[in-house]
User: What shape does this take?
Amino acid sequence: MIDDFEVYQRVSELLSDSVDREGAELSVESGEPESAISGLLDEAYTSDALSQEVIDYVQSIYTDGPVIEMLDALRMFENQ
Assistant: This one.
């Protein structure tokens, strides 16, 4: 089973280098990988760098929780 820290690493690898990771790295260092993943998703979205590949990967791992809540919030924002 893949853990949240590994998911964070993979999401970070999938994202463009232009996506700011500073806040997410602080969350990882604080032992909050789901918060870090959510932060990466938010940063990627605001940088127009959130790919379908990243979304599909995250959805293949999580079915609920803060990471999915972030994706749902980004979808709602997109649909406004």
User: Anything to note?
Assistant: The chain has five helices and no strands.
